[in-house]
Amino acid sequence: MSTGEGAGQHEEGEYGRAAKRLKTEETEAEEREEGEEELEEGEDSDSGSLPGDGESAKDNRARWSASQCGAGRRANGEDSHRISPSPVVHVRGLCEAVVEADLIDALEKFGPICYVMMMPFKRQALVEFSAVESADRCVSCGAKEPVYIAGQQAYFNYSTSKRITRPTNTDNSGNKVLLLSIQNPLYPITTDVLYTVCNPIGSVLRIVIFKRNGIQAMVEFESVQCAQKAKAALNGADIYAGCCTLKIEYARPTRLNVIKNDNESWDYTKPYLVRRDRGKGRQRQAILGEHPSSYSDNGYGPPCPLLPLPSNSRYKLTSADAPDMVSYPLPQTSSSYSGHAPSSVAMVSGLHPSKMNCTRIFNLFCLYGNIEKVKFMKSVPGTALVEMGDEYAVDRAITHLNSIKVFGKRLNVCVSKQHAVIPSQVFELEDGSSSYKDFAMTRNNRFSSAGQASKNIIQPPSAVLHYYNVPPCMSQEHLLRLCTEHDVPGFVKFKMFDAKPSSKTISGLLEFNSKTEAVEVLTVLNHYQIRIPNGSNPYTLKLCFSTSSHL
């Protein structure tokens, strides 16, 4: 991709290690947030990958503020929340449109701010002040009177951390290269998309995208000031409504070296940069030329129209240096990646002949989009066609599931030439099940409405599974026995979230020895029907990949 790829891979590895350290900073927020997640009862609350909170957000925030922000004191003078003063403040109750600049604008009146870490999916953030006294003023003021951030009241408490761990070993705030992590990428992320988002804030020179641990990118700006302005304006923002959320840090490399301009890397100072020939001697003759005539030079086709954002957009800055309007491209189709016509059908090969069937394919692929139909191909053993809700779902499945190992075989996921799955040549698979199944009406699809889709956090496979919609009577031993009965690996670590007294279900995390084991367990046990004595409806066990890398 680029010699910047070398730098990109180095940065990616460094960022991956730093991300694990960042987990300690997010623990208190994450546990509260996930601990409150639940469904109402059994099949009646089949809502999405991450269940919703049955209690109103307003009541939650009010209770959190009263219990955590020092509303009550013990007789001996000790704070009821037992958290000692810290220069790091945990902010909760943020609106979905908040960005880093909003936090700084609202809180810098309490004192100089050193660092901000956004947690956009949780509507929370950590803010590090330069002195404990500043943090104390912030927490005390928030307990006495409303403090508004981006037009919505926020709630404050001291963090258990004394300092926010930066993603790199040194403070690179003087760097003009930013590291962007794109969370919940429902739509394709390309250099065109990132350039259109970033360039109006500050002149972009180079972009490199890498996709090993989710989707990340490095963007080099013309100056340090441009990078600082872009970080403040875009950190925590959504590229598209409700998804493709940006989490931005300063990168370690000070310059990106790009050797070709394409979907994943681009040098805007060299618009005609092409792939560099490798090796010596004469180049091999290409039978059909450089590329198909229907495939444009940059692989993108005609440019997407740009949409002006409304006046209350999260991208609009108060600074006079920033533009009043930021344009962004419409989501692009699968053809942006492969040169194929857009298709909502994926072809999956490398399937285990006796351990994979239509239902297990559904259990795995439903994490990335609705599944309409699944059909095994009789003429090509170990291969199936999966018709999904749209071409974006196919893109997500390819990004996260291509080349993973399931039951000892490596999957190959690509766009099919077919535009629909036709139920022809139905036969019996080795396990006795049908080679074709229609899932269009199942309640286990997780993207059937905008509300459902927004609760799904698109994650690559990991060694930690998030389980939910489980009856309270289920224990660690019951879940281990379930793994044994279905001949799948057992988990090595177990964590159950605290449930509210009124909750009818429980949730938690399961850690396995490897990512492959977790994938196999999810493939087999996702949507398993748990029946309890005297229960009217079974509980549907829901599994998805967790954002946590370990417990």
TrEMBL record:
Keywords, sorted A to Z: Isopeptide bond, Phosphoprotein, Repeat, Ribonucleoprotein, RNA-binding, Ubl conjugation
Domain of life according to the entry: Eukaryota
Domain RRM span(s) in chain numbering: 87-161, 175-253, 344-418
One function term, GO molecular function aspect: RNA binding
Segments of skewed composition (Acidic residues): 27-46
GO BP annotations listed: mRNA processing
Biased composition (Basic and acidic residues): 8-26
Name this protein carries in UniProt: Heterogeneous nuclear ribonucleoprotein L-like
Ranges where the record places region Disordered: 1-85
Gene: LOC114447570
Any GO CC annotation of this UniProt entry: nucleus
